Structures are given as structure tokens and as C-alpha cells.
Amino acid sequence: MPKNYAEFYKCALQVNPYSYIKYRGLEHEMTEEQYNESIYKYCIKNNISIIGLADHGNVDKSSTLRNYLLSKGILVFPGFEISTSEKIHIVCLFSEKTEEQELERYLGELGLSNPEDGNSPSTMSFHDITQRVLDRGGFWYAAHITSDNGVLKGKHNNLWQSDKLVAAQIPSKKNEVDPKYINILKNKDPNYQKQTPFALINAKDISKPEDLDLDTSSCLIKMSKLNFESFKLAFRDPKARVKLNFDINNKYPHSSINEIKISMGYLDNLSLDLSPNLNTIIGGRGAGKSTFIELIRYALDINPMSQNANTSFENICKSNLGIGGKVELVVTSHAQYGKQFKIIKRYNEDPIIKDINNNVSSYTVKDILPNIEVYSQNEIIDLTTDENAKLKILNRFSNENDNNDEKKEEIKSNLQSNSESLIKTEEKLEKLQKKINQLPKLKEKLKHFNELGIGKKLEVQGKVSKEEQYIKNTKKVIEDNDISITNIILPFKENYNKEIKHIDIFDSIQRITNNHNEKLQEIKSTFTELKNTTQSEIDKVYNDWKEKKKHVEKEINEAIKSLDDIEGKTKEDIAHEYTETQKQITSIEPLETKLSQVNIEIETLNKERMQLKEDLKEIFDEELKNLNKCVKKINNNYLKGQVNIKIQPYANVNNLIEFLKEENGLGYSTLEWIKNGSVAKLNL
């Protein structure tokens, strides 16, 4: 499919012919034919599409190189470099259709004082020469402006401010130019300030083919067609259409939609080839801009957030596609390292992803275009009242918070786990405390028994009862005792020998870990055996104790018989109550040690919670700092006073209000104080 959109082409705009090097007192180590071939090879190597021929005050010596490059498909703008009467050098270029005789005539009109010496200055002024070039349909740029014979080094501010000066050559990146010229190039020096837009270009004086390898030898011009008229047109919009090689950020390329095709429905057979740099769709009312965007959204399987927008979206898709309709996109995915994919979305079906060879892929749209967002016109208007949406848009201008989302989610997850552990531990504490709180009453009751002489009479029973409780507690502790043993699971596949180079190393790792797991099983078996043996031995001891208890039961029964009935309670009831009191005290007293341990657990969990909260606050502080930097950059560089963004930290409390509103007895009116700004920053 032929391209019908503008794209950047690399242009080397000051290439010299074979003979030029003699002006520098040097000689080539190759023939002219080899030189021309080498120039072409370096053009292909560096993806250079356009050459500007600019010998010094001469055109006839460039004809051989020009004809050779044309035969190889390189577009050539013929021209020359000339020195004005002010000794300012400019490069003049003309249409690729300009004949050599015409160039000779143009050069002859420009008043060279010595036609045989291309370096001699013209008798004509800067303004006269540049106007003459423009009158002949040509293009010119100020050469090496910060060097000898340059308009800035020569301090010709009046020439620099000329509205005819639309392009100027610098020797390096913009920020590497001599500092004394930086403000002039930024158009901030009042003595040199220009009222018309201008482009800064790199166009190194090429005398050796290998010079074309240098980034400073060429620049990028955005054109819809490869011809001189499109080239000149680009300089009317230099900010968008003229770039240095250094300006193109290949380190962070972006995804793009390259093609869209629509089958069936109202837009049947619509096929558009899109520029990877497309960022605006322009058209009159009813031209189909919204429909175009909504069909792209449909193919990407992204639904509008609001109900009204969703209804409109569904109606557009139904009327423009309908049953049997299909939208097909070809996209380039930055997330998948520049690979191209087809996204096929049939009406009322899920999208299908294919690679460029038409093989169905397991990727989803989010896998290949993870951060893409689509908004209709009405949704954009709705954004003005949605603080979260505005914040989300601002965050897209900052790359510094990219790693924070994962950290925040991890901390929030840890906080949730901490909360659950804290609640369970506090519940455990509450139960323990409830039991321990019974101890003073039980001890007072026991004291009362002793004051009545019951304790002395039932001393043996009390001791036996306490013994039994201790033994039962011991059996429970042994039963609850356990160890957690987990085998090592290797973090690579069993058939790793197909995926790695050093198989012997991984064989050793597997052998060592297998041995480790076997030892763990031995430990677990040993523990289980030990636990069973211990329980069995304790059971034997318990049985021995039961035999001993039989020997004292007569003494216990005699003691019970010696009791008197008290307040209607029989001696048996009194003995039972005394025994139960002893058992409860014996059971509860060890819990005081456990209570201390639980308090330590709670203290540890609270410290952990404080640390997690502080970690989260530090991330919020960092995000706020980065967001403020981002807002300052947007205000200064993009909005420039038309709109001013302000950040009010912790001002969006809508989610908090919605959360609290779910609690019984709380409503909007009750929570209005939060929205009125009474809460500057709520603690977690």
C-alpha cells in the first residue's frame, strides 16, 4: 500500500563533490568513481534519503556525483555555498529538477568577485542574495552560524532577525552549542529575538564519505512527498517538521496504529494507512471524526466508563458495523519490542490478535497496547469534574512513579495481612484476658474454702485434682506441638536440559536439592515418631498416676465425709465445687505467661504496621514531589498561562466519604465536615 502520509526523512544538506577536499589542502585515497559509490553506500547505511549538494561557489564539479546518486534513487537538491559581502556563509539549494545551466546562471547572478575562487565573497549583501535565491524558487540556510563566517559569531543580529532566515546550521546538539549562543537559539535574547519561526539543523560539511556516519551530518525533515516543494513547506512548521537526529528519542519509542480497515456495514471497504506520528484528526462537523475514534475503541475492546457514553458508543458501532461487520487494525507494539500485530474485532465478538503472518496469537490487547486510553468528546468534557481522571492524566507525564504502583500494592497487601493478624491476635488477647479476669474471683473463692477449713480437709483431693489438670495440660501441649516442613521446589522446568547450556551445573543443583528434600522427610518422620513416642510415654505416666490416685481415693472419700453440710449444700457438692475451683485455677494460671507472649505479638504487629504506614507515606510524599515537578513542567512548557494546574494534596475525600457512608448511622450530612476541608491529611 503506497504511503499517503507525512514522515521524517533523513537529509544531508551539505555534501561536497570529490574535488572539494583540495580546498582543504588534502587528497583522496580513492578515485572520483569510488568516492561517488562510497557516498551512496554511506547514504544507504545511514538511511539518508535526500542529499543537498553545496560546493563552495561552484556547481559544475558536482554533476558527476549528482547524476550517480540520482541513478541510485537518492533525491538530490543541487546548490552551492556562497559568502555574502558581509562574509557570512549561506548554503543555497534548488529543486531536483533544476538543470546545471540554470544553477550556473543563478550563481552568476549572485555577484562573485572571483568566479574561479569559490571562497571569495560576493559583492552582494546578505539580504540581496537571500532574496534572489527565494525569487528563483530556491531555499537557503545560514551555515555554521557559531563558527567563523557565521551570522552569530559575526554578531550580525540584524541579519539573524531577518524574516527570510528560516533555517540555521549548528555543529552539535542544541544543548552542546557554545553557552553564549544558547539564549539566542532559544529566542530569549532581546537583542537577537526573531518574530518568525526558525529551524536549527545539522548539516556537516561533508568532504569524506565516512562523515555521513556522524549524527551531525544530517537532520530529519517531515514530508508527505519526496520533493523540493514538500521540503520547503516543512520549514513553515519547523517545530513539528524539522528535527535533529538527537531529537528523535529512540530510547523510548511509542506504539502506533498503522492501518485501519472496515468490512461490511456503513463504512464497508474503508481502508486507511496511518502515519506512526499521527496525533490529530481534523475535519468539519459530521466528517466522521468521532466515528473513526469510536471504531478504533471498539476494535481495542475498550468500553466507555459512563453509562451515557456507553450507550452512544454502542449505537455508533451498531449503525456503522452491524451484524457481520468487522474492524481490523494493524498496530506496532512498543511493549512487544516493535513487533506488529493485527487486531480483528467482529461485531459482538471478542477481538482476535494475530501476528503479521496471520498466525493467531495468545496475546490480548492489553498485552500489546497496555496503556492505551480512548475518550470520546463527551468523556473529555466529563473529565473536568472528575479529579481522579485528571490525576491519572497528569501521572502519564511522569515516568518517575512507574515503579511505585507495585510497591504501593505490596505495602497495601501487607497492611491488609497485618490488619487481619492484628485483629485475630487482639481477639485471642481478649479471650485470654477474659479467662484471666476470672482468676481473682476463683482465688478468693478458694481462700473462702480454706477459711472454712475445707481446704485443709480436702488438701489431698486438691493436690490430686491439680496433678490431673497438669497432666492433661501437658498432653494438650504435646498434641499441639508441630513443625512445618516444606520441600524445595526448583524454580525451573524438569526438562531444563533443553533450555540451558551448562547442564552439569543444574544437574548438581537438582541432586543437592533432592538430597535436601529427602533429609527433610527424614526429619519429619523422626519428629512424628518422637511425638508419638512422647505421647505414648506420657499416657503410661498418666496410667501410673491413675493407679496412685486409687490408693488415695479412700482418704479423699473419708475427707469428704468429714465435711459438714453448709447452707443447704451437701458435702459432696462442696467437695465437687472445691475441686472444680482448683482445676480452673490450675488451668488459668499458665495463661498469664501466654498473655505476655500475645502482648509481645501485638506490639510487634503494631510496630510493623507503623513501618508499613511510614513506607506508604514516603511513597506518597515522593509521588507528590514528582507530581508537583510534573505540573510545573506542564504549566511552563505546554500550557504557558492558558490554563494553570494546581495540586491540592489529600483533597479528594470522595472515596473516604463513600466508604464511611456504608456504616450505620452515617450519611452525607453527617460527613459533610470532611468534604469542607476540615481534614487536611487523615492518618491511615
TrEMBL record:
Q: Which Pfam families match?
A: AAA_23
Name its GO BP terms in alphabetical order. double-strand break repair
Record keyword Metal-binding present: no
| Ranges for domain Rad50/SbcC-type AAA | 265-450
Is the keyword Nucleus assigned to this protein? no
The residue stretches assigned to a coiled coil in this entry are 394-452, 542-637
> What are the protein's UniProt keywords?
Coiled coil
Signal sequence span is none
- What domain of life does the native source organism fall in? Bacteria
Gene3D superfamilies given in the database record = Metal-dependent hydrolases, P-loop containing nucleotide triphosphate hydrolases
GO-annotated molecular function: ATP hydrolysis activity
* The protein, known as: ATPase
Upper classification of the source organism reads:
Bacteria, Bacillati, Bacillota, Bacilli, Bacillales
